């Protein structure tokens, strides 16, 4: 058996090293560099990066959001409300959405207000409000039809509020000067039952013209009916009676012939005091009441002015009968005040 030929180690090692190098090179060419990472299949689920919730806005920005929501709700209410009728809605149905000065709203307006209030609450929690505005007035469904009885009952709520207008200041100066002249003529002008026809005619024309010049601008400014004729006729009767009618010679309870003189004077005094009190009571109601129906309630002002005129006329009657005392005046005031409270309570219960 032949022995194997001994191998030269100095020749074998370089060859082995070269073969290993060629094998590694071929393997590197066959496998791509990123082959170690597993390829992603089309059906694999891609992990979603969950972002952190946004930080809530600072308090100053929250206040801006609330103010913006309130302004948007107010603009929406102003755009929708003028062209629509107002329904009689109970105040307890909406809680804090109603205020004393806010007019009564319809269903679609209340939905807008509720959405705006919810957005304001979300703004308090730190999210930007998104106010959902209602559809414009043109796309709103047809308004509900009411019977004449319901319309008459809701007339104070549906009527547009009257606007106060200001007469020029120079007119007030002219009227004040004219009234001062009339009073001076009445006191020092030697007017009486024996006065001739010409001064009577001039005095009557002056009083009538001054009454129209005084009460017509007031009626134009306040839009109060029957103010001009009551003021003109009432003060004309009072001044004419004081100037030319002879004073009564007997007591009121004596009867004729002085009863017509008393009735004429008391009627003129009632109309004059009523005309003076009516605009004052109406303006006082505008400052006193906050509810729209109570502020612009002309019937209430006329009733209270009538009560004031009745009080003045009755005081004059009691003075003529020599029974005018403090107790009588207090009792008369109590009776009129009690009657007014009953009228207000009946009207309030009728509305509710």
Q: How are the SSEs placed, and which strands pair?
A:
Elements: H1 9-30, H2 59-80, H3 107-125, H4 148-153, H5 155-158, H6 169-188, H7 197-222, H8 227-244, H9 259-288, H10 292-295, H11 298-320, H12 326-351
The value of Rg in angstroms is 46 Å
Can you summarize the main beta sheet? none
Secondary-structure-based class equals mainly alpha
Residue share in β-strands: under 5%
Low-confidence stretches: 42-46, 93-103, 127-143
Instruction: Tell me the overall shape.
Output: rod-shaped
One letter per element, helices H and strands E, the order comes to: HHHHHHHHHHHH
Number of helical elements: 12
Whole-number mean pLDDT: 74
Helical residue percent band: 55-70%
State the end-to-end CA separation: 133 Å
What's the quaternary structure here?
single chain
Total strands: the figure is 0
Give the domain tally.
2
What's the short story on this structure?
The protein has 352 residues and is mainly alpha-helical. It is built from 12 helices and no strands.
What distinguishing features does this structure have?
mainly alpha; 352 residues
Describe this structure in words.
This protein has 352 residues and is mostly helical. The protein folds into two domains: 59-139 and 150-155, no CATH class; 169-351, no CATH class. Helices cover 62% and strands 0% of the residues. It contains twelve helices and no strands. The chain has helices spanning 9-30, 59-80, 107-125, 148-153, 155-158, 169-188, 197-222, 227-244, 259-288, 292-295, 298-320, 326-351. α2 packs antiparallel against α3 (107-125), α7 (197-222) runs parallel beside α9 and α11 (298-320) packs antiparallel against α12 (326-351). The longest helix is centred in the last third of the chain and has 30 residues, at 259-288. It starts with 8 loop residues before the first helix and ends with a helix. The model is unreliable at 42-46, 93-103 and 127-143 (pLDDT under 50).
């Amino acid at each position: 058996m032949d022995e194997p030929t001994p191998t030269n180690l100095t020749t074998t090692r370089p060859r082995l090293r070269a073969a290993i190098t060629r094998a590694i090179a071929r393997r590197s060419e066959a496998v791509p560099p990123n082959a170690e990472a597993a390829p992603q299949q089309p059906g694999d689920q891609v992990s979603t990066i969950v972002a952190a919730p946004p930080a809530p806005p600072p308090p100053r920005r929250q206040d801006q959001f609330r103010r913006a929501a309130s302004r948007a709700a107010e603009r929406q209410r102003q755009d929708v409300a003028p062209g629509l009728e107002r329904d009689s809605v109970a105040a307890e149905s909406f809680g804090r959405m109603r205020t004393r000065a806010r007019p009564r709203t319809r269903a679609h307006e209340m939905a807008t207000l509720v959405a705006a209030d919810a957005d304001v609450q979300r703004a308090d929690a730190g999210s930007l409000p998104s106010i959902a505005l209602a559809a414009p007035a043109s796309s709103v469904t047809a308004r509900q039809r009411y019977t004449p009885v319901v319309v008459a009952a809701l007339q104070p709520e549906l009527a547009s509020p009257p606007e106060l207008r200001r007469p020029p200041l120079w007119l007030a100066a002219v009227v004040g000067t004219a009234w001062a002249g009339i009073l001076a003529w009445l006191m020092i002008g030697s007017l009486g039952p024996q006065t001739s026809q010409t001064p009577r005619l001039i005095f009557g024309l002056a009083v009538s013209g001054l009454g129209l010049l005084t009460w017509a601008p007031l009626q134009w400014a306040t839009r109060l009916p029957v103010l001009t004729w009551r003021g003109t006729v009432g003060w004309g009767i009072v001044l004419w009676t004081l100037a030319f009618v002879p004073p009564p010679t007997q007591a009121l309870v004596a009867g004729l012939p002085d009863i017509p003189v008393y009735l004429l004077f008391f009627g003129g005094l009632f109309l004059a005091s009523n005309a003076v009190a009516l605009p004052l009571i109406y303006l006082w109601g505008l400052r006193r009441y906050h509810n729209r129906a109570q502020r612009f309630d002309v019937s209430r002002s006329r009733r209270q002015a009538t009560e004031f005129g009745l009080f003045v006329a009755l005081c004059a009657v009691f003075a003529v009968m020599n029974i005018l005392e403090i107790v009588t005046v207090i009792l008369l005031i109590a009776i009129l005040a009690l009657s007014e409270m009953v009228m207000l309570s009946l009207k309030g219960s009728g509305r509710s």
